[in-house]
Amino acid sequence: MRWFWQKKKKPEDKGEETPAIEPSVEGIVAPKNEPTAEPKIEPKIEEAPALPEPEDKPVTEPEPLSAPEPEPQPEPEPQPEPEPEPEPEPEPEPEPEKPSSSAPVIADPVPAEMEPEKDEKPKESPDEDKPKKANIFARFSSGLKRSSSRLGEGVTSIFTKRKLDAETLEELEDLLISSDLGTALALRFGEALSKDRFDKDIDEREVREALASLIADDLHPLQKKLDLSAGPTPQVVLFVGVNGSGKTTTLGKIAAKLSGEGKKVLMVAGDTFRAAAIEQLKVWGERTNTPVIAREIGADAAGLAFDALARAKKEGADIVLMDTAGRLQNKTELMEELRKIVRVIKKQDENAPHHVILVLDATVGQNALSQAEAFLEAAGVTGLVMTKLDGTAKGGVLVAVSDRFHLPIHYIGIGEGIEDLQDFDAESFAGAIAGLTE
C-alpha cells in the first residue's frame, strides 16, 4: 500500500508526461480540419456533379414519405367513432383509470430519484476524502506533537549530513526504543533501513518516511472502527482499565457519538467504588439524554451488571455501555472481581460481553504492555482505545502494544472534547508520529 508521503514523488513524473498533452490538442484540431479539408480536396470537385445526383435521390425518397401522410387521415376516422354517445362514454372512463394507475407509478420514482441522490453523495465523497484526510492528519499531528517532536529532533540530530553506518544505526535504534516504539520494531527498522542505504548518504526526510511506512504497514491491519450495528441486541460493551486511564470519559464520549447516530443507549455506572465516577457518568447521561443505571457506593458491581442487562432487554436498548472500577493489573483479587462480572453477564447472554475495550493511558509508557497482558487474560479484551496522546511524548507505546498483542485499535484520544476522540487512522498516526507534513 502506498502512503501519502510516498505518493508525493509522483507529480514530478506526471510533469514530464505533460508534453504528451500537446499532441493530443493537435489531434483535437485535426477533426476540425477534416470537414474543411473535404471541400478543399480537388477530387471532390470532380465528384461534385456526382454528389447532387444522390442528393436528388433522397429528395425523391421523401416524396414516397409524403404518401404515408394520408395514412394519418384514417386516424381521424376513429374520431367520428367517439362522436356517438355510447362510444365516448367508455373512452373517458379508461382515461381516469389510467391517471389513477399512473399516480402510484409517480410515487415509485420519487424514492427512485432519492436513491440516485444517495449514489451521487458517494461519488462526491472520493473528492471529499482528501480534505477529510488532511483534516484528520492535521488533528493527529497536533495531538501527537510532543511524541513527534521528541522523535523528530532525535532523527535530525543523528542524520545531519551523515552516512548510514553501524554507529548511526545503533543511535537510531536507541532513539526508537527510548521513544517507546519498542525493541522489536526498532531492530526491524534498523535492519530494513540498512538493506538499501547502508554506507550511503541519507537525510532525515528519508529516515522519517521509511519509519512512517514501517509503522503504517504494521498498524493498518489493526485499524478497525467500533461497529455496534451488527449482531444481536443489545450489544454489550465492557470498558476495562486501571484507575485514571480515562474509561468513564471515553465511555461518555462514545455514548454521545452513538446517541447522535440515533442509537438507543443505556449506560451502567459499574465503578461502584468511586463516587466521582458515578456522578461523572450521570453528567454524561444528561448531556447525551441517555439513561444511566447506578447504585450506591460499594454495591456489588456484578449484580448491577446483571440487572442492567435485564432492563436493557426489557426496554429494547440497542447498546449497553458498562463502566468498571479501575483495577491495578498486579492485584489478583481485583482482577478476579472483573472475571466475576464477565461470568454474571454471560448468564443473561452467553455471547456477552460482545466487546471488551481496554482503555490505556499513553502517559504510562511501557507499563501499558503489562496492563494489556493482564486485562487480556482476565476479561478477554477485543479492542483498544489509547487516551491522553496529546499530553505525552510516549505516544509510540501504542505501536509497541499493537506489535506485541495485535489487538484492534478503535479510537485514540488527542484532546478533551468529544470530537477529540478520533477513529484510529494508521496512515495519519504513522505520518504524525514520524514528524512528516502533507
**How many distinct helices?**
19
Q: Radius of gyration, rounded?
A: 35 Å
- Show unreliable segments: 10-128
Mean pLDDT: 75
Shape: elongated
State the oligomer: single chain
**DSSP strand (E) fraction?**
5-15%
Q: What proportion of the residues is helical, as a percent range?
A: 55-70%
Biggest sheet layout: 8 strands, mixed
Q: Kindly, what is the distance between the CA atoms of the first and last residues, rounded to a whole number of angstroms?
A: 17 Å
Provide the succession of SSEs: HHHHHHHHHEHHEHEHEHEHEHEHEHEEH
Number of strands: 10
- Structural class comes to alpha/beta
| Strand ordering within the main sheet | 5-4-6-3-7-8-9-10
Tell me about this structure:
The structure is a single chain. The protein has 438 residues and is α/β, with parallel strands linked by helices. The longest helix has 35 residues, at 109-143. The strands form two sheets. It has an eight-stranded mixed sheet, with helices on both faces. It is built from 19 helices and ten strands.
